[in-house]
User: Fold this.
Amino acid sequence: MEKSVDPPVTVLVTRRPKPGKERAFEDYLAGITQAALQHQGHMGTNIFRPSKPGGNYRIIFKFDRRSNLERWEGSAERAEWRAIAEQVSEPRQVETISGLEAWFTLPACAINVHPPKYKMALVVWMGVFSLVTLLSSLLGPLMSAWPRLLQTIVLTALVVVCLTYAVMPLLTRLFSGWLYASKDQK
Assistant:
């Protein structure tokens, strides 16, 4: 698949252990997490346990490419883990997201809840503005002799990488009260 049609993806899974199967469910989580870590393109798993016994677990898997997620989902190893999950938990809810929504995924929110687009746009703008200003100041003198197109390519590549892996996760946590204010009051 071409990179532009094979974006990074985040998979949000909600599961609830069957009564009396809580320990087996925790073992399942540890096992599937280790298995997924060995799979090509897997970028990490976050597990958010319920605040009360009997509640839902939220499991977030991140993959560098949709094609790598599809290979994992279609693998024999994943089928084995799915069978174990069905024995120890209620049916799952799954949402696969890519794009801006993936930057705005918080464990305290419902699985399919994202902030209003105007709030996402404002926080993204803050991240982009800050990074462009900082990186231009730091790298501008070093790249001043380069052709403008090459400067732009390097700068935008650095901005996207920094946004994805550092700035947006930080800003999402920092502004979570404002981003999700109307969602929390429902």
